[in-house]
Amino acid sequence: MNSSVRPEPDFFQSSNVWNIAESLLGMHICTLVDGEFCRGKIVETEAYAAPEDKASHAYGLKRTPRNEVMYHQGGRSYVYLCYGMYDLFNVVTGPAELPHAVLIRAIEPLEGIKTMLQRRKADKVHPKWFNGPGKVSLAMGITREHNGLDLIESESIWIEWGDGKAEQKSILRSPRVGINYAEEYVNKPWRYRLMNEFAGK
DNA sequence: CACCGGATTGGCT
DNA sequence: GCCAATCCGGTGT
Description:
Helix content is 14%, strand content 29%. It has helices spanning 9-13, 17-23, 113-120, 133-140; strands spanning 28-33, 36-49, 77-82, 86-93, 100-111, 157-160, 171-174, 191-194. Strands 1, 2, 3, 4, 5, 6, 7 and 8 form an 8-stranded antiparallel beta sheet that branches. The structure holds a DNA duplex.
């Protein structure tokens, strides 16, 4: 199987962040944190396409210590604090200096399920524990400590091919969540969901 | 099931 | 000081 193989760097370096966001559906996110290995199938993503995208932290090529890693070439992690309480995990994409990123919004747990349930303080597997970007980080053990990691080389967080490319017809596109400030970008259908019970509603 | 508010920190104006 | 790429529990239908 090539399901447990990581993509080559050029997968992340494409300037087509929408295609990457869609391609990540069905792929696996893996973590090895505190000695616990976890694997989740990615079932929901969102594309952020600065400089034009007003929903992006890098809108207009705004560059700050927080979003600096977005300017790195694709293949790094971008983890930031949201609403003072949640660390959200993104995959940085595109060539250097083009600050694109894909937010991982939901997973279906595949391995390390006991650990994920403990971290979520949940008793049994149910989509409600994994169907949001804050929930993904909590379950997988991802924190801002993991910001800026090289997903090609890291032994803490990485991406694998997993199930392979999803059927076009099994993918839903819709506007992104929580970006009501983004004006004409509010309704861009840059949220991608697999028709899978673990994806958000 | 829909709607609503509180929690809680740091980034940036 | 304002408010954010969210979550969760409470209330009412």
